[in-house]
Amino acid sequence: MTASPLFFSDATPDRIDAALASDGLWLSYGACRVRVRAEASGFARILQDVYGAFPFQDQGEFADFHVRLERGRGLRRLVKPQVRFSIDGVEPFEPFPVSNALPLFEWGVNWCFGQRFNQYVLLHAGVLGLNGRALVMPAVPGSGKSTLTAALMLSGFRLLSDEFGVLRPMDGRLLPMLKPVALKNESIEVIRRFAPDARMGPVFAGTRKGDVAHLAPNAESVAELDCELAPALVLFPRWEAGAALSLLPQAPEQAFARLAFNSFNYGLLGARSFNAVADLVERSQCYQLVYSRLDEALDCIRCLMTDEDV
Amino acid sequence: MPGNKAHWHLLSLLRDVDHVRRMTLADWDLTLRLARQARLLGTIAHRVAANSVLWRLVPPEVQGHLCSALVYADHRARMVRLELGALASVIPSSVPVVLLKGAAYVAEAQPFAAGRLPGDVDIMVPRDRLDEVEHALLDAGWKFESVDDYDQQYYRQWSHELPPMRYPGHALEVDLHHTITPVTSRTRADTGLLFRDVRAVTASRYLVLSPADQIVHAVIHLFQDSELDVRLRDLVDIDALLRAYMQADADWCQLATRAQCHGASGLLAYALKYCGLWLGTPVREVVAPPMGLACRGMDWLMSATMLPHDPDTVPGLKRRMGGWAAQVRYHRLRMPPGLLIRHLSTKMGRQLAHAVRFRAASKVRDTGAGQRQPGG
């Protein structure tokens, strides 16, 4: 046997397939570790595309979630083949067409994490780091959060997460939950134009969220998977066609409400999440950013994060 | 102890939480999965967290899961209190309302129930007040979860409770009982006695069963009213109740007498046996221990069905046969044969009809790519 590859990008698809078919692969996301086993043709190659910079690990002592992707049963193996996601025998979703194994896997891991990691406040937000401090961007539909998150990572910010702002109540720090950024519809083309070299998986057309393509986290972000950050800036982005860039300070109580009501488990944590979110807005500058041009927005955010005047 | 090596860690932890000292990270990996499946993760978490020395011996990634389980159990207990608050204001104040199982433990803030994951809210009222309470709930907005005519009729005619109800948007179902055993089953609880010895919950309108009746009810629920499938948690409940309430000899004698009054001496004997064997519960031999062929059959059935199964292996023959045997047993205990045949054939007919309808409907649905919830 040859020496074990260090990263997914070094492994051959056969090697990845073999691991998926036997003991599985252990994927580190920062806040959690997932062991995945799969029988879905083509999944290995796509996994390699979007997890290329992640350490390749086909042995592990512990995983937070043990998940499986399996082919459909009976006739469904032959006719319009399907893929099913399960965790310890629980199947949270209907099967997907077998070609859509990656979106199913990504949604599945999000589901597990959102259901079972109630030791943290799980904000619905993108989180990025610069100079050892965190930027939190809560998602509001149509905010262009994923586009902005992707562009920030591609311009020197460290990506912590695109979906979950993982806030630890004990010390108010943000943990990475580093997964491929799911870009939807127009934003796929926007990011391709913004960074033609960026590593992206295939476009999955016609999923329940429209067209989806996954942007691979870069090596710089993966290198800091163990590193949590204190928050510095809470930013509510809003994309508006043709709008001039504008930055509006948000009162803490306003920012609090927008963060809390945009969380996966705020109500479930009771007083713990109230205190944690209140501390977060108290420690951070809070703004609303309206933009139409990506480059302007990026400059503005960089200035805010480096404390320059804007 | 029954089961394999994986079960050994789970049962050892439940016997004595000091077992944490002997567990590696890899042991925890499978134990967490089994404990979650058995709905016992919060209970274990609470017991470990209560001892700061042991807590520090738990690997940080495992601590995370235990914390999460505690937060979730806390949340569920809060939901129970909210539901009880809502019910209290709706049920006419002249009706005595007895809380059963989880609801009783939460209302009395029982230390042994910390971390326990409550399922539904079970309440019991006298049979002659049942209609009144049912209508009060329906008038206030609670709705039956199933509107199936046969289910409704089945529950009303043969069961000890009404079909589950829920207020739209509330987290928990309410099961409204009038006694603790199905009216058709061989074990027939003495309902008069149950109501006679209730005690009041401090600062509330609610009542709970006497300690001995709580234990007998938990025993009946496990051995008579369940299909034993991964019901280890019910045994853990009985273990906790025994440890909490059975102090002096007199307590044990009273328990034996109570079980006899409710026709549940045999079931109690089984409960005491498996509590002692599996969970190390200090038990006294106050009822004749089960013996003979039936007892060996029960040994086999319990070890085949009660424990959570290793999710990485396909269920073996013993487990599958055990599951089947437990179902047969469950129905046999619940109903006389004639009624059982009628019930099962009606159910099968309905399932068949449902499957045909579902087939037709799913052809229409099958075009979409998927489901709901967290994006990405």
What can you tell me about this protein's structure?
The complex is a heterodimer of chains A (310) and B (376). Chain A has 310 residues and is α+β, with helices and mostly antiparallel strands. The model of chain A has no long low-confidence stretch (mean pLDDT 92). Helices cover 30% and strands 28% of the residues of chain A. In chain A, strand 6 (121-130) and strand 7 (133-138) form a beta hairpin. In chain A, strands 6, 7, 8, 9, 10, 14, 15 and 16 form an eight-stranded mixed beta sheet that branches. With 376 residues, chain B is mostly helical. Chain B has one domain: Beta Polymerase, domain 2 (2-Layer Sandwich), CATH 3.30.460.40. Chain B is built from 16 helices and seven strands. In chain B, a hairpin with a 6-residue loop joins strand 6 (199-200) and strand 7 (207-208). In chain B, helix 1 (5-15) packs across helix 2 (25-37) and helix 10 crosses helix 12 (249-261). The longest helix of chain B has 31 residues, at 60-90. The model of chain B is unreliable at 362-376 (pLDDT under 50). Chains A and B meet through strand 5, helix 3 and helix 8 of A and helix 2 and helix 5 of B.
List the helices and strands and how they pair.
The complex is a heterodimer of chains A (310) and B (376).
Chain A: H1 13-21, E1 25-28, E2 33-38, H2 43-50, E3 65-71, E4 82-87, E5 96-97, H3 101-116, E6 121-130, E7 133-138, H4 145-153, E8 158-161, E9 164-167, E10 174-175, E11 181-184, H5 186-194, E12 204-207, E13 210-215, H6 219-223, E14 230-239, E15 246-249, H7 252-260, H8 266-269, H9 271-283, E16 285-291, H10 294-305
Parallel strand pairs in A: 2-3, 7-14, 14-16
Antiparallel strand pairs in A: 1-2, 3-4, 4-5, 6-7, 6-8, 6-9, 9-10, 11-13, 12-13, 15-16
Chain B: H1 5-15, H2 25-37, H3 41-49, H4 52-57, H5 60-90, E1 98-100, H6 101-107, E2 121-124, H7 130-140, E3 143-144, H8 149-158, E4 165-166, E5 174-177, H9 191-196, E6 199-200, E7 207-208, H10 211-224, H11 232-245, H12 249-261, H13 265-279, H14 292-305, H15 317-334, H16 337-365
Parallel strand pairs in B: 1-7, 2-5
Antiparallel strand pairs in B: 1-2, 3-4, 6-7
Helix pairs in contact in B: 1-2, 3-5, 10-11, 10-12, 10-13, 11-13, 12-13, 14-15
